[in-house]
Amino acid sequence: YFFSEKKCFQCIDHFGYNADISVGDVWSMHLKNDPVKHSGLLIRNRCGRDFHNLATAAGVLDSRPIDAAEIMEGQARTAPFHYNISARIGAARRCGLTLKDTVSEPVHWNHRLVANLALLNWKWSASERWAKFIFKVPRPILRAYLVFFKALESF
Questions:
Q1: In this predicted model, which residue has the larger pLDDT, 76 or 120?
Q2: 144 has pLDDT over 80
Q3: CA–CA separation, 30 vs 23, rounded Å?
Q4: E strand segments, the chain
């Protein structure tokens, strides 16, 4: 969440809940080494299905069915952070942002810690002084931090 747009911290709509079609990366482990980076389409209604069928028939879309569980499995780490704005409320307040809690979900300790780290990362990168420092941190240290962050999200 370095250099994130602050408006992104208010978003709870990671899956485009009200869209006819929602498109996102498929992060399945069995596709990790595939040279083609797949996108998943969540088709929610007849309008979305009709559009999908037209695009497929016109040859502008190549698709095959995939179980929604596979998409959710690949998003299991990040989806709770994106949906659970309740975890970000306090962290945002400490960073000078005001967020509206639209989900009122229970907050687990690891989600609260992830929210605090994410907002701290945003605040650091928004600072002219600290943003320069971030680019000076050796990549192996940034990678270790990312792995730690992802582990907290998955806990």
A1: 120
A2: yes
A3: 19
A4: 21-25, 39-43
